[in-house]
Amino acid sequence: MKSICVYCGANFNGDPVLLKAVEELAAAFADQQIRLVYGGGSVGVMGIIADEVLKNKGLVTGVIPQFLLDLEVGHKEVTELIVTQNMHERKQKMADLADGFIILPGGFGTLEEFFEVLTWLQLGLHNKAIGVLNVNGFYDHLFAQIDVMVEHRMLKPNNRALVINSDQPLELLEKMKAFTAAPDPVWFKDRDLI
């Protein structure tokens, strides 16, 4: 993997465990010559991971829509800053530039981006690894809900298995490198999961 798109929050809650995990992930990106692709912001967890990768002499590509740049939240020090017309173009560009995806703690936008690329993987539109850095159990309830979807036969177990989960940055990267996509190719034919 030469580039990984990281989805994360434009807020930072001050959690020192999250900060340490972001620092470790950023150092691993730089050490392994993985380019960070992210939302182009200078604030929150987004700003922290970009700053940390740059501090470690890594490469950072930010992708930001013009309206957010106009609000002065764009990161001006990144290696490359791509400005898009809107959010849809931004998300497509980020996905196109990435060889994989990592989800850090965030809010609605982070979850929306996560489920979009996960759905694309399930549909076979890409075969890139999707990893969740589950810092301090931040996503435990989300994974519990996904397991409920399987239990209630609204999601097949092999599609549930498409999500890589770890609370350790280096372990997550290693799992992602070993990932091979195996979505269910007949999800649209077998609609009843009974």
What fraction strand?
A: 15-25%
Which class best fits the helix and strand makeup? alpha/beta
Q: Per the principal axes of the C-alpha atoms, what is the gross shape?
A: globular
Count of spatially separate domains: 1
Q: Largest beta sheet: what is the strand line-up?
A: 4-3-2-1-5-6-7
What's the helix-strand series? Answer: EHEHEHEHEHEHHEH
Proper CATH architecture: 3-Layer(aba) Sandwich
In quaternary terms, these chains amount to single chain
CATH topology name, in short, is Rossmann fold
Helix proportion: 40-55%
Q: Alpha-carbon distance between the termini?
A: 38 Å
Tell me the major beta sheet: 7 strands, parallel
**Strand runs, count:** 7
- Mind telling me the C-alpha Rg? 17 Å
Instruction: Give average pLDDT, whole number.
Output: 93
Instruction: Provide the CATH top-level class.
Output: Alpha Beta
GO biological process, one term: cytokinin biosynthetic process
GO molecular function, one term: AMP nucleosidase activity
Family: Belongs to the LOG family.
EC number: 3.2.2.n1
